[in-house]
Amino acid sequence: MKGRVVALLSLxxxxxACGGHPVGHHDNNLPPELQVLGxxxxxxxxxxxxxxxxxxxxxxxxxxxxxADTVEAPxxxxxxxxxxxxxxxxxxxxxxxATSPTYVGLHTMVANLTAHDHAFSTVVAKYIAPEPPxxxxxxxxxxxxxxxxxxxxxxxxxxYVATTPTSPLNRINFPLQQFIADTNLGPVVAANxxxxxxx
Length: 199
Ligand SMILES: *[C@@H]1O[C@H](CO)[C@@H](O)[C@H](O)[C@H]1NC(C)=O
Ligand SMILES: *[C@@H]1O[C@H](CO)[C@@H](O)[C@H](O)[C@H]1NC(C)=O
Ligand SMILES: *[C@@H]1O[C@H](CO)[C@@H](O)[C@H](O)[C@H]1NC(C)=O
Prior knowledge:
The protein is of the alpha+beta class. 14% of the residues lie in helices and 29% in strands. The chain has helices spanning 2-17, 158-161, 176-182; strands spanning 42-43, 45-50, 55-58, 75-77, 87-93, 103-113, 122-125, 137-146, 174-175, 190-197. The termini are far apart. 33% of the residues are buried. It holds the Pfam family PBP. This is PEBP-like protein.
């Protein structure tokens, strides 16, 4: 028994030594401003659909996307995380508040996300495309959390998730860490990010 465990461990060591690591792994799944949220070991697989001609743009961690790539709501694939669990998915901008980066701009929030039928997911905050100010590039960040039982949006956050004629103004300075604590979202289980704006 002990010998088998040792053999298994050495297989893992060989795999690591050969540079092999789990599919979807990336060392820097969060931009520097949001490292305070932890170090999710999984890279969240996110794609932006493009309507004409029909195609998709995959997000590669830390790389630039063009405004034309990010017009439509991003789609996260949680299958590599779990085939059964429910997830909460967000896209946030940590660069709208330089002094308090975790007071983010909320671009979208989706609950009840599963590996299977996206039709069952609930759009909590409708997608708003990036609008980086001229001369700036922002690090737009995707977060996935395991959805706690009875997850719902506390009333005090309703103004932040709404889509109104003055949006995106109401989405600014969303207190992300407080929201995570208030709703028991727990650690970020997978993340990814891209840059958009003037390099
Ligand atoms: C950044 O967020 C903090 C906390 O809400 C707030 O006090 C401050 O006014 C914000 N700064 C800007 C530039 O919006
Ligand atoms: C975005 O991420 C880069 C690392 O690639 C970092 O140097 C930069 O400070 C971050 N924030 C902004 C606003 O670019
Ligand atoms: C998740 O789906 C359930 C069942 O359809 C629904 O009652 C609940 O409100 C949804 N959660 C959120 C946060 O919208």
